[in-house]
Design brief:
Helix 6 (88-101) runs antiparallel to helix 7 (106-121) and helix 8 (133-142) packs across helix 9. The protein is mainly α and 181 residues long. It is built from ten helices and no strands. The radius of gyration is 19 Å and the shape is globular. It has a domain at 55-180: Regulator of G-protein Signalling 4, domain 2 (Orthogonal Bundle), CATH 1.10.167.
């Protein structure tokens, strides 16, 4: 068992090496570097053309992240935009929470709660979301006995973050501007 300071230093050094490798890749291969930095099993699909919203419908998204997320095309477009900004963990966490709340089986709920915690909440999680210490503590306390509302506070914080920061940038993006033409 290593002392905590060595373990932490090791993780930081390993992370720094990963970042250095990815940056080196970016500098060498500007055309395909994004696929190497974000290794998706397959390239992200564009939303199907058949369900493309009318410009009027898309205009409503400017003022309502909720309306945007309720629309399949809107959700896919917003997710694609967040991927381009390297902040897709926020929408992925939000979607994981939505799926979690629909879970009926206590056993499945406990499994999903553990997975969401390990993937998005715990310190140095692979897709750690930006929540304050108090919210993290409340969420951890809620997970002692998982319920449909265990992640509510954290999900609301991330929703507010996307609404305040990401939505205005999305509205100014080419992706969105094409939809409202």
């Amino acid at each position: 068992q290593c002392p905590p300071c060595l373990t932490s230093s090791f993780h930081l050094l390993r992370r720094a090496k990963e970042i250095k490798t990815k940056l080196g890749t970016l500098l060498q291969k500007p055309d395909s570097a994004i696929d190497l930095i974000i290794p998706y099993a397959e390239k992200p699909e564009k939303p199907p053309k058949a369900h493309k919203p009318s410009p009027e419908e898309a205009l409503q998204w400017r003022d309502s992240l909720e309306k945007l997320l309720q629309n399949t095309y809107g959700l896919a477009s917003f997710s694609s935009f967040l991927r381009s900004e390297f902040s897709e963990e926020n929408i992925e966490f939000w979607a994981a929470c939505e799926d979690y709340k629909r879970t009926k089986s206590p056993v499945k709920m406990a499994e999903k709660a553990k997975k969401i915690y390990e993937e998005f909440i715990q310190t140095e999680a692979p897709k750690e979301v930006n929540i304050d210490h108090f919210t993290k503590a409340v969420t951890m306390k809620n997970l002692v006995e998982p319920s449909a509302s265990s992640f509510d506070m954290a999900q609301k914080r991330i929703f507010a973050l996307m609404e305040k920061d990401s939505l205005p940038r999305f509205v100014r993006s080419e992706i969105y501007q094409e939809l409202v033409k």
